[in-house]
Amino acid sequence: MHIPYNDDTRFLTKDLGVTYYVPEDNIRKASFVDKYTKMAQRNGKLFSKQPFRWLMKRNWGKKLLFVFFGKKKDKTGWPAWVKKTDEERIQNMPWILEDKSPWIATEKIDGSSTTFTIKRGKWPRKNEFYVCSRNVCFDKPDKPCHYSTNIYLEMAEKYHIEHILTEMLTLYPAAEWITIQGETYGAGVQKRNYHLRSHDFMAFNLITSDKGRFNTLKMRELLEDYYHIPCVPIVDSKFILPDTVEELLDYATNTSQIDGGMREGIVFRSEDGSKSFKAVSNEFLLAFHG
Known about the structure:
This protein is 31% helix and 20% strand. The protein contains eleven helices and nine strands. The strands form two sheets. Strands 3-2-4-5-6 form a five-stranded antiparallel β-sheet, covered by helices on one side. A four-stranded antiparallel β-sheet has the order 7-1-8-9. The longest helix has 11 residues.
């Protein structure tokens, strides 16, 4: 049942801890099962034995087992160096509020997680370029997409991502791979369409193998100012965390810098890019996912 957003219902999410359940969103964000897990599931009785469990806990062991027990259908095409986007909620890590160093607060966008990545090819091999949703790598042009059109490939073409990442490999010669992650949003992506009739993209992560995740301000300077790739709005570049989760959730509730409508929440990142978490507006959840 959808509950309309108004002043009389604002208390529900705070007092009752309402979260959202959207079947379509759960399908899109379903847990990813890699090729090694598929191999183990298919050989459950054998892989439950101690030697196999020991090998499955080690990267080299999984690779060795796959030589003998893996099948072509197990392979997913997912780029092994890419970590999937899934920020932890503040409710699950309240201890972080003790860190009173400045944080960079960016607007959280209600869309679909999108990853673009390139790995440097060693002669005579070419560079490997991939476009991914949160769990699916579109390594084949005909691979099914959750949406009626492939919004991820659409964004890659719109912003010339492969060309830009190829150029960035030259800019960062020590990098083995470079990844841009962000949110694709707009018409038909979520219930919150930001008054768009089409789709658009905003980056929130720039990661290289040698430097790790870039400082958000440096990411924006490079991607937005130089390559004209939009980045998520910066709400505060020197935010000091409050003492309570409730205060932070209140802060997350505000208007969007994108269209002036309701903001989904805030993502907080440390200045060195090593730590991050999110605070999702309870009022947004009630209005759009209640």
